[in-house]
Amino acid sequence: PLLNRSKASALIQALSEDPVIESLNIRERTVLKRWILSEIQGRMLEDIVLLGTMMRWPGKEVFVLQFALGEFDMVVFDPEKLECEIFEIKHSKVRAREQARHLLDPENCRKTEFRYGPITRKTVLYRGETCEEDGIRYQNVEEYLMQAG
User: Fold this and answer.
1) Number of helices (H), then strands (E), in the chain
2) Cβ atoms of 129 and 136 closer than 8 Å
3) Phi and psi of 140, rounded to 5°?
């Protein structure tokens, strides 16, 4: 995390020297820097989870699935069983129904099941406590990665 944070800090520093960014007041610059750091951390977490999942299940296909509106951050497709699991990956410690909005989208789920077979589980990986709510599994991402390792 320290190395990744330093890379993010270097990027933020480089952006800070941009004339457009320099024209923002301190509050605007601070909000922008926090947003950039959050975006970087979120994308890095997604990459770590995808790689960990690929290593855990080498016989399964692991990928991001994009739609016209939205995406599943990770799909784990089992080509032998012809079924899949869908995931959202969030850097947040707080559980919120909004995190599962793509998993609950009936059209995207229908398209996914047509291409990859029945969806056996819908999971939001996040930094909070593991639980289940309204058919969505909210799983602590660190626990998930420990299982994947």
Assistant:
1) 5, 6
2) no
3) -65, 125
For tokens 């099941």, the residue is 113
- Identify the H or E element spanning 141: helix 141-148
61-109 pLDDT, tens digit per residue, is 999 999 988 899 999 999 999 999 999 999 889 998 889 999 999 999 9
Q: Are 126 and 97 in contact (CB under 8 A)?
A: no
C-alpha angle 86-87-93 in degrees, rounded to nearest 5: 160
10 backbone φψ class: left, alpha, beta (φ>0; ψ -120 to 50): alpha
Q: Look up tokens 């909000």; give the residue.
A: 31
Beta strands in the chain (DSSP E): 61-66, 71-78, 83-89, 119-126, 131-133, 136-140
Q: Helix axis angle, 2-16 relative to 26-56, nearest 10°?
A: 140
CA distance 49 to 61: 14
